[in-house]
Write a structure and sequence with these properties.
140 residues; mainly alpha; 2 domains; binds heme C; 59% helix; Cytochrome Bc1 Complex, Chain D, domain 2
Length: 140
């Protein structure tokens, strides 16, 4: 009797362990899929603009018109359209975004990734760099 119970218990333990392992590996895989990284060449690109008053004003204009609906007034990802997105629009006040290079941010804005649209046809290069400069003011 005791051995029967032991066997059942062991079998259950094996099933539970296997399930747990699958869950852990599955979420690690999903997490990997989710990471969004600019290619090294884009990451190394330097911003040709400096953060003077003109650039900041221009960057704000682009941001308010094209980005704020999702990313929110202060970049917290809480714009009026954010609630309709499948995934959060991120939080630009945080290091996870601010620690990325200007080149990496430029690349992400140009390329987009669903549900974020690509802006390389809608904005010119200067406007994209201006929006990167403006994004830096959202840092907390
Ligand atoms: C339709 C909603 C929407 C609009 C409009 C939008 N974004 Fe996004 N944005 C997102 C979403 C959602 C993500 C997260 C995408 C992901 O992780 O796959 C994102 C991510 C980003 C990222 C990457 C942040 C990081 O930490 O890696 C940057 C940079 C960015 N957006 C800048 C902009 C700028 C600048 C504009 C305007 C020119 C803009 N976005 C317009 C929805 C939007």
């Amino acid at each position: 009797m005791e051995t029967v119970i032991k066997t059942i218990f062991r079998k259950k333990l094996l099933t539970v362990s296997l399930l747990l392992l699958t869950a852990i590996m599955g979420s690690a895989f999903l997490y990997q899929q989710k990471e969004w990284k600019a290619p090294a060449s884009a990451d190394a690109k330097k911003n040709p603009l400096i953060a003077d008053a003109g650039t900041l004003t221009a960057g704000k204009t682009v941001y308010v018109k094209e980005c704020q609906s999702c990313h929110g007034k202060k970049g917290k990802g809480d714009g009026p359209s954010a609630k309709d997105l499948d995934i959060p629009a991120g939080d630009f006040t945080k290091a996870i975004t601010q620690s990325q290079s200007d080149g990496a941010l430029y690349w992400k804005i140009s390329e987009g990734r669903k549900p974020m649209p690509s802006f390389k046809k809608k904005l010119n290069e200067t406007q994209i760099w201006q929006s990167v400069v403006y994004m830096r003011t959202l840092k907390q």
